[in-house]
Amino acid sequence: MRRSYKYLLRATSKQATALAQCLEDHRQLYNAALEHRHTAYAKAGASIRYGEQSADLKHIRGDDPGGQGRWSFSSQQATLRRLDKAFRAFFDRVKAGRIPGFPRFKGRGWFDTVEWPKDGDGCRWDSQPEHPAATYVRLRGVGHVRVHQHRPVKGRVKTIAVKREGNRWYVVLSCDDVPAEPLPATGAAAGIDMGVASLVTTSDGEHLANPRHLAATAERLETTQRALSRKKRGSKRRRKVVARVAALHGKVRRQRLDYAHNAALALVRDYDLIVHEDLPITNMTRSASGTIEAPGRNVAAKAGLNRSILDAGWGVFLTILAHKAESAGRELIAVNPAGTSRTCARCGHCAKENRVTQAEFACTACGHAAHADVNAAVNILRAGLALRRASEAA
Question: Where would I find the Transposase putative helix-turn-helix domain in this sequence (predicted)?
Answer without folding.
Answer: 1-44
